[in-house]
Amino acid sequence: MAMKEYKTVREIFGPIVYVEGVGDAGYGETAIITMPNGEKKKGQVLETSKNMAAVQIFGNTQGLDTKHTSVRFTGETLRLNVSDEMLGRVFNGLGEPIDGGPASTAGEKIDIQGSAINPYSRAELHDFIQTGVSTIDTTNTLVRGQKLPIFSASGLPHNELAVQIARQATVKSKGGDAREKEDFVVVFAAMGITHAEASFFMRDFEKTGALERSVLFLNLANDPSIERLITPRMALTTAEFLAFERDMQVLVILTDMTNYCDSLREIAAARQEVPGRRGYPGYMYTDLANIYERAGAIKGKKGTVTQLPILSMPEEDITHPIPDLTGYITEGQIVLSRDLYRKNIYPCVDVLPSLSRLMSLGIGGEKTRDDHSGVSSQLYASYAEGRDLRNLVAVVGEEALTERDKKFLHFSDAFEKRFVSQGKYENRTIEQSLELGWDLLAGIPESELKRVKPEHIEKYGKKYRK
Predict the structure, then answer these.
(1) Whole-Å CA distances, 226 to 21, 77, 201, 219, 413
(2) pLDDT, tens digit, for every residue of 414-437?
(3) What are phi and psi of 37, to 5 degrees?
């Protein structure tokens, strides 16, 4: 049925067009906007009230006017064609192919807003994901179905860490060492990135072969900011299809959520809404929850959706609304440190403020190793004490320390140089990371190893004792 075309555009505020006399448009409905030059653009209904509809336009709005612009409402919400053929493909922020491949129309059309997982249907999360990065696998373990953000800052190597995890991530089968790499796929969504960053992501995924088991959505900095609100939903719709319809283990990497939230603020300002904290809309918590809560596992389904959102903290302030609200919704955080970066340590993960709330569910026994929990706790405690002693040394000098204190001080330096620091292409198994941990703990008196069980010291640590 042909949809009615409206030529009653009353006002234009940036990417928002206000159309009068509309009585049957619904929230989230897609619209086709015909520009004065005949070009057609997609849009989405943001709001409807009293015969007025507010439509946000995807794309450049230059040339729009109130007299010659027409709007046609499709009666459908924004949908994405999903199929197995998406693996190995690159799309823009609106789900259109940009890799030169065919514009596939095959597959099922799914509403990108998704539907919340019924809490009763959520399965318990308990399977370990090996990222190959020691500071994550050993001390802040990622579990299948978890949402674990990375808190970074401008200029820190979060993009390099993201592609390293995408390249190396595997899951252990319940049988032990076998890696289920063929069933593990990555959905990568980049929002507001530069052309240089887009080239970096494309090159790395192609060069390492990770693209074959990945789906990329790239929204560039010069693309309309409104598209950034769509990009993560496109990625998560794809992830849910692959996980819950194709039984795959899916890791979703979203970078940079700060650009997403800035777009949310920009659109809220264009809609002339009353601003909340630091100018961000009051509903930003709900909006972020709509994205982050699309992770998890469903009873009776083999697949899972795991999220690794990345955000750069404005002014490196962890109390800023974006990291603050993200921390409330998600299950921990990995924090990158400027001080470690200045020491030329990669990845510059600061273990002390980092946390994985689901770590205890995914480690131990045949999931990783029986000494994992103790080694992690001991490394954390020893490093924390060494860091405290550094501050003391800055005041009184190292000569004032006892022999015991000097060992903890030297441990903190060795921990950063050998455990935290690893190459961008160095893929450590959890066994290698734990062995390295024991190697470092060998420099601490056995009487100080209060967080590891004696039988584990006997089994794993004795070969480092003299």
Answers:
(1) 25, 16, 22, 10, 45
(2) 999 999 999 898 999 999 999 999
(3) -90, 5
Residues 6+ apart with CB under 8 A from 458: none
Looking at this protein, which amino acid is placed at residue 457?
A: I
**CB under 8 Å to 466, separation ≥6 — which residues?**
none
Crossing angle of helices 257-270 and 284-292, in 10° steps, is 140
What is the CA 383 to chain-centroid distance, rounded?
27
Q: Is pLDDT of 310 > 50? A: yes
Angle at alpha carbon of residue 141, lines to 139 and 147, rounded to 5°: 130
Cα separation of 42 and 48, whole Å?
A: 17
Partnered with residue 43 across adjacent β-strands are 31, 57
pLDDT tens digits, one per residue of 130-167:
999 999 999 999 999 999 999 999 999 999 998 899 88
Tokens coding 55: 């439509």
Q: 0.85 exceeded by the pTM?
A: yes
Determine the straight-line distance between the first and last CA of the chain, rounded to whole angstroms. 83
The CA distance from 433 to 303, in Å, is 27
Question: What residue ranges define each of the domains in the chain, with the CATH number in brackets?
Answer: 5-76 (2.40.10.170), 80-362 (3.40.50.12240), 372-464 (1.10.1140)
Relative to beta strand 184-193, strand 249-255 is parallel
Closest CA to 134 of 321, 372, 357: 372
| Burial degree of 80 (CB within 10 A; 0-12, 13-18, 19+) | buried
Residue type, 455: E
What is the H or E stretch that residue 240 is in?
helix 231-244
Please give the structure tokens belonging to residue 214. Answer: 């990945």
Are 174 and 364 contacting, i.e. CB atoms less than 8 angstroms apart? no
The answer to whether the CB of 170 falls within 8 A of the CB of 212 is: no
pLDDT tens-digit series, residues 215-249? 999 999 988 888 899 999 999 999 999 999 999 99
For residue 151, CA distances in Å to 158, 353, 414 come to 9, 10, 24
Q: Taking CA 362 as the corner, what is the angle to CA 361 and CA 367, rounded to the nearest 5 degrees?
A: 130
Amino acid found at 318: I
Name the band, by pLDDT with cuts 50, 70 and 90, for residue 345: very high
Q: Which residue in this structure is represented by tokens 């292409």?
A: 425
What are the residues facing 193 on neighbouring strands?
A: 220
Q: What's the mean pLDDT in 388-400? A: 87
